[in-house]
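Lab notebook, bench 4. Still working through the backlog of constructs that have no structural model yet. Next entry is a single chain of 301 residues. Request: give me the C-alpha cells for it.
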Amino acid sequence: MRNLWKQGLLIALVTLSLSACSIGTETTKPETKPAGTETKKEEKPVVKTDASKPGEEASTDGEVKVGTKVAAEWISDIYYSGVIDKISGDDYDIQYDDGFLETHKREDFIVIPSKPDFKTGDKVLAVWMGTIFYPGIVQEMKSDYAIIQWNDGTTPSEVKFGKIVLQPKDMVIEVPAVTEAPVVDPVITEPTAGELPLGARVASKWADGNYFAATIIEISGSTYSVQYDDGTSGENPIANLIPLSEVITLNVGDKVLAVWSSASGRLYEGTVQEVNSSSAVIKWDDGSDPSEVPFGSIVKQ
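Model written out:
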C-alpha cells in the first residue's frame, strides 16, 4: 500500500515538473510565408483607342499609354512636343518637354510614330529647334531622319525621326507672302529709327500676331532684318518692333509682355507681381505659375 502511494506521488511530481518547464515557452512564428498566400501585383491597364486624329499615323504598337511621345496642340494649330504623364478616363496629362504640364483630350494630340513611313512630298509638322513643331514638306527621306523644306522659307534641315508627325488633314497653314507688308499694330507707339541701331534687342511681331524676342542684324531703309532667339529670321518695319532694354521702370500691377520660355522667345501677357533689382515676378494671364523674368525680356503693354 505504501509502495502504491509512493508511485502515485512520483507520477504527480514528474507531471508537475513538466508543467513548470513549459511555463514561459514562446511559440516561434514561421519565418516563411505559407505557400499559396502570395498576391500578384496589379498592373496599370494600357489604354487603347481608335480615335485617331485626322492625318495621324498610328504608333507601332497601336497604344496610347503613359510614356507615349506626342505632339500636343497647346493653342489652335500650335503643337509642342511632350509625353503622356497620366491617363484618367478620357483625360490625358501631358508633360511638355519644356516643363509645362497640361490636361488634354484625345483629339488634342498626335502620337509621334517611332517607325514612320513618310514619303517625299508629305506635309508634316516637325521640330526645327526647341520643342515647337513647324509646318513643312518632306524633301528627302534617310535611314533615321528626314530633310524638311519649311513653309516659312527657312533653309531645309535634317530632323530626326521622333520629332516629325503628319499634318492633320483639317489643319490650315497660313504662309505669309514675301511681298505682303505686315499689319501695323495701332496700340504700339512707333519709336524713331535712332532708337533701334544694329544689334539692338527687340520684341518682333511674327506673322501670327505674336511677339518674339530677337536681335536686329541688318537695316535696309525702313526694313529691319532680325534674328529670332529660336534661330529663325525675318523682316519687319519699325512699327512692328518694340525695344527691349535692361533698364526699365516697373511697378507692381503693371501690364506687360514678357518672355516665359527662352527656348521659344515668345512674349506672353501678364501682370507685374513683384519687382527686384534686375528682374520682375510676372503673374501670367493664362494662369501659369508666376515666374521671374529679367528686365531685358519685359516690355510694358
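Notes after review: The CA atoms of residues 14 and 160 lie 89 Å apart. Helices lie at 2-22. Flag for follow-up if needed.
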